[in-house]
Amino acid sequence: MNNANNLIRYTKFATIVFIVLAVLADAFGFIIVPYIVRIWADKTDMFSMIALSVVYYVGSVGAFVVLISFYRLLGNMGRDIVFDVKNTKIMKIIAVTCFLMGADCIVGTIAWFGTIYVGVICFFMTMVILCVRAVFEKAIEMKNDLDLTI
After folding, report:
1. CA angle 115, 121, 125 (to 5 degrees)
2. Is the pLDDT at 148 greater than 80, yes or no?
3. Which of 58, 104, 105, 150 is the most exposed, fewest CB within 10 Å of its CB?
């Protein structure tokens, strides 16, 4: 059990590090977005700059929602609240946010086709999270059935 608690503690710390990195990415977005547009996308028009800025900052909001929700999920697990409806609701929030971030990136393809790769990754993560959520829901159902038989 101590190993699991250490893993949760380290993962919570890593999540905080990612939140800090996301804050820094937002703070320096005025440098990062033009770099992406000019160097990676090889675009110089104002439409691409504005469109990819919108995609960047909308995705940033999604990243914060996912990271904070993940931190809450880890907090529940650290308190031994694992197979609980609260966790499936948090997973649903994460899955919906990942899906919306994927859609955001797909919309970004009007300015640069390269955003499709991040969009596909977001859609894949949505499927993974929904599968884990289904496993949790089944475990909750089995736990409730077991509680009724005792």
Report:
1. 145
2. no
3. 150
Q: Among residues 96, 114, 97, which one has the least CA distance to residue 105?
A: 114
* Cα–Cα separations (whole angstroms), residue 27 to 30, 57, 64, 90, 118: 8, 11, 14, 27, 21
Q: Compute CA distances 102 → 11, 64, 111, whole Å.
A: 24, 15, 15
150 vs 25 pLDDT, higher one: 25
pTM above 0.85, yes or no: yes
Q: Would you state the structure tokens that stand for residue 77, as one six-digit string?
A: 């697990």
Which pLDDT score, from 0 to 100, does residue 73 have? 97
Beta-carbon contacts of 8 under 8 Å, excluding residues fewer than 6 positions away, are 74, 77, 78
Average pLDDT for 120-135:
97
Q: What is the DSSP letter of 44?
A: -
pLDDT at 1: 59
Domain that holds residue 117: 2-149
Give me the number of domains the chain comprises: 1
| Interatomic CA distance for residues 49 and 82, integer angstroms | 44
Mean pLDDT of the chain: 94
